[in-house]
Design brief:
7-stranded mixed sheet; 4-stranded antiparallel sheet; 120 residues; mainly beta
Length: 120
């Protein structure tokens, strides 16, 4: 069993910052990719950022230059530093991981989501 748990969401004023964390635990052999998606009310879930095991990163155009993704492989944790937040960033943020279990089976896992609300 693999579990991802997010933390760090909350309410912030426009221009402010938040840092999200997502820790993976359980029956883990290795983690390939970890990242974040977000879903605003009434909208589809959209890609935000990802980081692969070697450290390469990708970002949605809407967050480039404002968000930074990083990971601590020893802790199986991924972080999303969000600066210069805008009301349009308001959404539930979901962490995901492409994880190889000790059985050597690879699958995608999702966290339960954390709410980020940016007030204008």
């Amino acid at each position: 069993q693999v579990r991802l748990v997010e933390s760090g969401g909350g309410l912030v004023q426009a221009g402010g910052s938040l840092r999200l964390s997502c820790a993976a635990s359980g029956n883990i052999f290795s983690i390939r990719t970890m990242g974040w998606y977000r879903q605003a009310p009434g909208k589809q879930r959209d890609f935000v950022a990802q980081i692969i095991s070697g450290g390469a990163t990708n970002y949605a155009d809407s967050v480039k230059g404002r968000f930074t993704i990083s990971r601590d492989n020893a802790k199986n944790t991924v972080y999303l530093q969000m600066n210069s937040l805008e009301p349009e960033d308001t959404a539930v943020y979901y962490c995901y991981g492409n994880i190889i279990a000790r059985s050597r089976l690879e699958d995608s896992y999702w966290g339960q989501g954390t709410q980020v609300t940016v007030s204008s």
